[in-house]
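Chapter summary example: a protein plus 3-phosphoglyceric acid.
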Amino acid sequence: MKILVATEKPFAPVAVTQIRDVVENAGHSLVLLEKYKSPQELHAAVADADAMIVRSDIVDAAVIAAAPKLKIVVRAGAGYDNLDLNACTAGNVVAMNTPGQNSNAVAELAFGMMIYAARGGFDGKSGSELMGKTLGLHAFGNVGRCMARIAAGFGMKVYAFDPFVEKTAIADAGVIPVDSIEELYSVSQYVSLHIPANEKTKGSIGERLLSLMPQGAVLVNTARKEVINEPELVALMEKRGDLKYLSDISPDNAELFGQKFPGRYFFTPKKMGAQTEEANINAGVAAGRQIVSFFATGDETFRVNKPK
Ligand code: 3PG
């Protein structure tokens, strides 16, 4: 089988080598398409692929239509909002993700951004410390758990809200479960977002929740920019000069933040959360193994789309 690795933002070379080993040792071949500039390049590359590994690359109906032999696409990562699941199902393509494989990298980046903000971007003035501050985890999945582990080392008081996780499981991880999302935002000096981007969550973080945050609060977004109601965030930051926003990837209106809120935001130029050698190896190799296992035994563990 021909397995295409299509990554606009490439994996570390060491990860590609390990993915290649997994695929070739199972008797398949690997083709690499990195840093492609247009959907057409992806369409051409996928034309004779039986399987595909992607990251945040868009896999829409046009990609599926361009891939008549495609049987499986694996998003090497957690969030699969870049995959058109209906198009995959319609095209008889199994869609999977690799949950948990890059979570620690994302959590470490969140803390990197928090330290940067707490120390005023290292501008020479007195900043603040994370120890003793409150951290609210909006969702308690794989990344939330890594956040809690790291936050404990920093001596932070950690709260979490997740309607899909038992409160006892949150408490077992040493985190205080709260009863409502409103309570989470009210008690947290830092709120860190770990929700997926879907029809329910898109634009859901806005004035209503953010205005509950205490004085000097910081919103940390390593999830997706789409979950933010950006006009409401901007309006609130105009009203409240104490609020800061840190995001792994620029918002739509990044220039406006530069003009209006100097020193109160930080944006990575490219999505960096999962961009470590370790995370690339973990997620990429998991994706390769899932494809090998699917072709060998029909294993559909981690499938995220419905069958036809
Ligand atoms: C994920 O959902 O796994 C992360 O956002 C990583 O995205 P990336 O592979 O594009 O870096």
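Key point: The pocket of 3-phosphoglyceric acid is lined by residues 9, 55-56, 77-79, 102, 271, 273-275 (CB under 6 Å).
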